[in-house]
Design brief:
Length: 419
């Protein structure tokens, strides 16, 4: 294990003991201070980000990745607002639940406690540095962060901003530790940092998730890979389709809850696909269509023949796959075969079709007549998210405050002994 990880991991572990004992008022005051510090240090943060953007362009990063990397005054203001929103959320720590009295008179309950030290490995998106730091602080956890090489200057400036806010609020800067070395060997070290890190959350591409699963001895929660679908049913309100599809695909195409595949029932395909394609063409979206969809879309927008791999691709760009299906069952079968269980939606006015879709599609979020872009911690009222878990575990979908806690059993007796 590297000296940097060892020392910063220990600092986080020590800080976690302090955090676990803090009251909500103290944590909220620290969060408000961090929000103020983000805005006060805006010039420093943007200058650091410009270094990363310039290097990214020189190294040939795609426009989608550059967009994920980019910070602007508006995005920094949004970050600060998100931090304040987290401060205003109920504190889960200490919450008591599942209380009951056993026949022997023992009073039994569960009480929420922090996980301890949470390690997060992430790529490209420097806003994650703020999201994770502040969610961990509110939930009483220390954080050890390892961002991607392409965002090192931005992440360093943001982590220093958080630490400045912590120090101003009288809290240990060890609460948030950024691994500044870009040596990839440190990723494996973090995954095996038993005794220093209690849980790892990887945020990035499929290769990172696979590497984490194969190499971790620390518990890992994976997610965030999104091959997201919208299915347009045969009983549908035509006025809803174009706005929802365009928003799902175009509003921010580089993120995990952006639309990748549009499935359309054969009975409405000729009415649905041309206006959808024309609307997407205004945003320069390339459509990759299977043969039946291709025949309908001939002459509309930029349309090419879909390859088999296109239905297994998270595009993260202005590209969308399209397929005509014969039935709701075929749509669900397609989703089961190709979805990453992130976000899938149905557009329908048929209540029974909506219920069947909800019952049979087991993604972390299932939408009815709504954009896939709503699967987001901020949109769900969680303030922000550490990640979107797609695993069938206790934490699923956007991981906010509650998902960053565990619990302990509390047993209150009156002198009982076990017979």
């Amino acid at each position: 294990m590297s000296n940097e990880l060892s020392s910063k991991g220990q600092a986080a572990k020590d800080a976690a003991r302090v955090l676990a004992k803090l009251d909500s008022k103290t944590k909220n005051r620290a969060l408000e201070t961090i929000a103020d510090t983000i805005l006060a240090r805006q010039d420093v943060i943007l200058a650091a980000n410009e270094q990363d953007i310039s290097a990214g362009r020189a190294n040939g990063l795609s426009e989608a990745l550059l967009d994920r990397l980019l910070l602007t005054p508006a995005r920094l203001e949004s970050m600060a607002n998100d931090v304040r929103a987290i401060a205003n959320l109920p504190d889960p720590i200490g919450q008591q639940f599942d209380s009951r009295r056993l026949p022997n008179g023992l009073d039994l309950s569960k009480r929420r406690i922090p996980v301890g030290v949470i390690g997060v490995i992430y790529e490209s998106r420097p806003n994650v540095t703020i999201d994770i730091s502040t969610l961990c602080l509110k939930s009483g956890n220390a954080a050890v962060l390892r961002g991607g090489r392409e965002a090192i200057h931005s992440n360093t400036a943001l982590a220093q901003t958080v630490q400045a806010g912590l120090e101003a609020a009288g809290l240990p800067t060890g609460c948030v530790q950024l691994i500044e070395s870009t040596d990839r060997a440190l990723v494996k070290d973090m995954l095996r940092a038993n005794g220093l890190i209690d849980m790892i959350i990887p945020r990035g591409g499929a290769a990172l998730h696979k590497f984490a699963i194969e190499n971790a001895s620390v518990p890992v929660i994976t997610g965030g890979l999104g091959i997201c679908h919208i299915y347009v049913d045969k009983v549908v309100n035509m006025e809803k389709i174009v706005p929802i599809v365009v928003n799902s695909k175009v509003q921010r195409p580089s993120v995990c809850n952006a639309l990748d595949t549009l499935l359309v029932h054969k009975d409405v395909a000729k009415a649905v696909l041309p206006p959808v394609a024309d609307a997407l063409a205004e945003h320069k979206v390339e459509i990759r269509a299977e043969p039946r969809a291709l025949e309908i879309l001939n002459g509309h927008a930029v349309v090419t023949t879909a390859g088999a791999e296109d239905f297994d691709t998270e595009f993260m760009a202005l590209i969308m796959a399209v397929k005509v299906v014969d039935s709701l069952d075929e749509a669900i079968d397609h989703i089961y075969a190709h979805s990453t269980t992130h976000t899938d939606a149905i557009l329908t006015e048929d209540y029974s079709a909506a219920q069947k879709f909800i019952d049979e599609v087991n993604s972390s979020a299932v939408m009815v007549n709504a954009s896939t872009r709503f699967n987001d911690g901020g949109q769900f009222g969680l303030g922000a998210e550490v990640a979107i878990s797609t695993q069938p575990l206790h934490a699923r979908g956007p991981m906010g405050l509650t998902e960053l806690t565990t619990y302990k059993w509390v047993v209150l007796g009156r002198g009982q002994i076990r017979g």
